[in-house]
Amino acid sequence: MAEHSxxxxxxxxxxxxxxxxxxxxxxxxxxxxxSVTGTLRWDETPxxxxxxxxxxxxxxxxxxxxxxxxxxxxxxxxxxxxRYSPGVTENVEHLWYLEVAEILQVTLNAAExxxxxxxGLEEAIETVASWTNREALERLR
Length: 141
What we know:
alpha+beta, four-stranded mixed sheet, three-stranded antiparallel sheet, 3 helices
């Protein structure tokens, strides 16, 4: 039997000094735009996960990652609960930021993301699907 996932994740907002933000569109469900996200492995710290997910999802070097020191809990949707131990209904998300000097070319992981785009902060806030991602972007104001 496969090991259950850890109910803990990271959210990494990648942006330029001018507040252009990188958004990724998930393969499933299509139309779900977000910043970099990922689940902590059982042997990882949030910092290790944030760096790994930036590399895996964008191909970018995670140099300069900043821990915002903010964690948000949210309910795990019923369709995803089978990934977790029985009775686990909530995930804790750790917020990180990564400022890059300019808009960069990214390399997507095609199994996870169908598209990416760099957009201005206000458009990013209006586009992302999750409230924690929206709140993280609003903090850049």
